[in-house]
Design brief:
5-formyltetrahydrofolate cyclo-ligase, alpha/beta, metal ion binding, Rossmann fold, ligase, metal-binding, 12 strands, two-stranded antiparallel ribbon
Length: 189
């Protein structure tokens, strides 16, 4: 039952996201960059995993640029084996990005694998309790669970406010967000 409900919630939230005006998308990306609370989540010297937007996702690049300027070391998701688990590799200026599948790019195998302490997390839908719905493959839930076994990580969801739904059904493998950033501001869970 929850898989069917998640699919329905995902489709509804993504339809709202797809319908957003391009100008609003740009303003939202700039707003989340400004709203990230560096005093509450210090990033200097820490590895922060971002993401490159696919389809109609919010653009995390302005925020990633701000975090780099604040001293963060940036990483991106990578899929060395298209069927295997998602890992994270360092993002270096000027380094070649290669296709990762899913319509996105990431650092190639010459870049070192890292274990981010803060993950900027894309999503399809979220609720007021910090539950998220991804795209149905569980890549972020699995990656964060592996990283949390070593040491707890901070998961910061990035989305447009129109992606909020009343309630996301939670399953044992789901990892809640610690924080959320939308164009309307910052939320802690």
């Amino acid at each position: 039952m929850s898989a069917a409900l998640k699919a329905q919630l995902r489709a509804t939230a993504l339809a709202r996201r797809d319908a957003l005006d391009p100008g609003l998308r740009i303003e939202a990306a700039l707003a989340i960059a400004e709203a990230f609370p560096l005093e509450r989540i210090p990033v200097a010297g820490r590895i922060v995993s971002g993401f490159l937007p696919i389809q109609s996702e919010i653009d995390a690049r302005p925020l990633m640029d701000r975090l780099r300027a604040a001293g963060a070391r940036l990483a991106l998701p990578a899929f060395p084996d298209r069927k295997g688990p998602m890992i994270f590799r360092m993002l270096e200026r000027g380094a070649e990005l290669v296709p990762m599948g899913f319509g996105t790019y990431g650092p190639g195998p010459e870049q070192p694998e890292v274990q981010p302490e803060i993950l900027l997390t894309p999503l399809a839908a979220f609720d007021v309790r910090g539950n998220r719905i991804g795209y149905g493959k569980g890549h972020y839930d699995q990656a964060i669970a592996r990283l949390d076994e070593i040491s707890p990580r901070i998961a910061v969801g990035l989305a447009f406010s129109c992606q909020q739904v009343d309630a996301v059904p939670s399953e044992p493998h789901d990892r809640r967000l610690d924080f959320l950033l939308t164009e309307t501001g910052f939320r802690a869970f």
